[in-house]
């Protein structure tokens, strides 16, 4: 149906073109139509229309191809960007895992060192306690031996009160030492008496 409309449109167009070329008289119209000429013109118009449609179809195909290429290109660009982003994210994740593993190793190492130092400290404290115990025992033993060997003597100063009085007198009468002679005589008698008693 559509093709028939196109063909009839072409025929009308051809007839119009031909009418322009024909001489028109006053009251009548003389039309000389050559059948071969008309067929040839129709065939040319059909060929032109077909060529125009083919050209438009080709343009649409080219435009479609261009759109498809552009879509593919943008998809590839987007895909590359997504892949780059994924790679960067994966690299960051792996880096974070490496750092976490290193931190865990450091933590284990620190705990190991801490346990080692605590163990060493406990040993040193134990040795120190043993050394202190042995030293204290040896000191006590030596002190007991010395006490057993050597008898202690308790000594009290002889005539201490007179001694203090004489010293006080000499301080008060530094220029008059003879004034303290009575105290000195008493002190000598006290000392002699103590010698006789012991």
UniProtKB/TrEMBL annotation:
Classification via InterPro entries: MIC19/MIC25, MICOS_subunit_Mic19
Biological process terms in GO annotation: inner mitochondrial membrane organization
Organism, as annotated: Buteo japonicus
Pfam families in the cross-refs: MIC19_MIC25
Localization terms from the record: Mitochondrion inner membrane
Membrane-crossing residue ranges in chain numbering: 6-33
Main location: mitochondrion
Membrane topology: Lipid-anchor
Top-level lineage group: Eukaryota
Protein name in the entry: Coiled-coil-helix-coiled-coil-helix domain containing 3
